[in-house]
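Q: How do we represent a protein-ligand complex in a form that can be generated token by token?
A: Start from the inputs.
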Amino acid sequence: MEPSPIVQRLIQALGPELVLTDRVTLKDRRHDYWLLSQLEDLQGRGVPDPLCVVAPKDRADVVTTVNLCRESLTPVVPFGLGSGVVGGVRTGPGAVLLDMSAMARVLEIQVDNLTATFQAGVRGADAEAALAHCGLTLGHYPQSIDLSTVGGWVATRSSGQFSTAYGSIEDILLGLEAVLPDGSLLETRCVPRASTGPDLKALLTGSEGTLGVITAVTLSVRWRPETRDFNVFTAPGMEEGFETQRYILQSGWRPAVMRQYDEADAARLFPGLVNENLVLLLLVHEGPSAAVEAEKEACSALARELGCTPGDPAIGPRWMEERNHVPTFEEFLKEGIVLDTIEVAALWDRMGALYRSVMESWKTVPGILYRAAHSSHGYRSGLNLYFTFAAKPDRPGEMASLYENCWERAMEATLDVGGTISHHHGIGRVRKAKLERELGPGGIGLLRKMKQVLDPWGIMNPGVLIPD
Ligand SMILES: Cc1cc2nc3c(=O)[nH]c(=O)nc-3n(C[C@H](O)[C@H](O)[C@H](O)COP(=O)(O)OP(=O)(O)OC[C@H]3O[C@@H](n4cnc5c(N)ncnc54)[C@H](O)[C@@H]3O)c2cc1C
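Then emit the structure tokens for the protein with flavin-adenine dinucleotide bound:
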């Protein structure tokens, strides 16, 4: 079949080696990990292939692609490595997929300044390996570090497992370069901080491919920690655990990792290591030896004071070892089970209510098999909660509606107690309908105006983030 006019123009401008139309490549990159896209594939309805996949080498190729797509009003879907879980990547039959993982060069590491500049498509684990050669580390370790890109992290406002001490992506992002929908370039200056009007980096952070294509990022990196140690406790209930975490953080301690698992998640993730009906608290301390020792002791004393008891010390190293292992959805979907994780956040005074109301909201879901939560990112003023559900409807034809029902209940319960509907996975398609309630009419209006000003053609990742 003759390629469509836009594909012909792209081939002419970029060369055939950068414009891929083979079935395997197209099929491979049609969507991210979002459960509903995977379900559609399994049920034979499948997300359509894009027109082509463009694999740019540099920002000039991105500019050319964006310009040609704009001139022909062709949708452009930026793709990192497709590890998103909210439907941010889902191509239509008329879209061009821009595979940023083809731009995978480490551009510069400055040891004196502790900065590293990467093309946006560098895989997280490759960025970390390049830094390790110099004794450095990112300090940003999402569980998907092997499956995601540095540009994708910025585009989704990602948060890593060690964020309690090191911050999330916006805290280490020093500069970025992006191609805007009109083909112009945004290049922010690399400085530790600036007071030069609104932060333009923030405009692209969390924009999920709707406002432009991020082509390079500079991150603030750190020396690898001298030492690492663990603290494990059990608490009688979630509220006691929240109080312990709050006291530790508000006393000025900053464990790199602080996680709290409810009874169900503790039993599922650490079988045989936690007594039934107990909540588990896991802390990882890292840094200079003296600081680690002091922090471990102080957190231990605070936890005991607040009614926690020491847990099995094997849990710390075990979590470190297995922290990036996750089962794939496919095996559950084949069994007719829908499941997902939903990460939300709130201030400390709402944590108990947040936990209870989301859990309660799922109690009456028909076919519910599992509901649980753990926290993984702590702040002076609040905490995230990472809920997990699994449910099985009577008939396979009801899987999608049951999945949507679980999401709807969790989102409404979170909004009702004043929490945010996403801590770090983003909005994509799965949360889009709830964004207006979170941002309010003023906020959603501003977001729509920004989209209208930057992309009046509506070519950048249509259908994502911004409610229709
Ligand atoms: C097993 C697993 C564990 C995970 N753990 C974590 C975790 O610990 N923390 C966390 O934050 N997330 C986690 N995620 C979610 C996911 O990995 C992140 O959202 C990640 O940042 C996505 O990166 P990516 O490069 O794969 O982007 P993609 O999935 O390819 O794209 C995500 C979104 O960003 C846009 N985009 C991608 N690259 C660019 C670019 N260069 N310019 C403009 N837009 C772009 C896309 O259009 C899309 O809307 C996990 C996912 C999985 C599957």
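Residues 32-33, 77-85, 88-89, 100, 120, 142-144, 147-149, 151-153, 155-156, 158-159, 161, 208-209, 213-214, 326, 424-425, 461, 464 surround flavin-adenine dinucleotide (CB under 6 Å). The mean pLDDT is 97.
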